[in-house]
Amino acid sequence: MTTDPHIHVHSMTRVDVFTGVGFDEFITTFEAAAPRYDPVPMQRIVEAGGTWDDVRAKVAENAPNELMVYAKIDGVPLLGVAGHDVKAVEYLLGNHVIAETMFRHDPRTLLYAPLRVLVYSDTDDNAVFSMDQPSAAFGSLGIADVTEVGLSLDRKVANLLRIIGVDPGEAFGA
Length: 174
Description:
Elements: E1 14-22, H1 23-33, H2 39-47, H3 52-62, E2 68-74, H4 75-79, E3 88-94, H5 96-103, E4 115-121, E5 126-132, H6 134-139, H7 144-163
Antiparallel strand pairs: 1-5, 2-3, 3-4, 4-5
């Protein structure tokens, strides 16, 4: 067994979508379109000896637009005390059924799933949606099946933005 680290250099593509939508309005609409993940139904499925099909059905029910929020970190109370007035909220956004389609090929996919999203305010108090492009992150692993899922996540994020009334343009190549 070797203890030498393997270092893999790869680049990421960050996407910044200037929404033109007020920060608070964008946050409200985003959170409605990508509901918060509720772990209780998953716990019940596990305790009842449920199947992956049961999980798929519950996830589809909880994520009507295919993505949900696993965690939310509001940067304002954390950093505002230091005098910063930029609003910033970080989200972990994803879908564990989709994540499983990559995890089966390589557990390192969990480095990038769920997706890490930052929504911050610009100088006009409009929301800026910022994240590393999923296809670039997952493509860095060099597994064709995983890269394909990353490309589909590009399309899903672009679609989520369209659902909430923001044109992502060509930002996600979708």
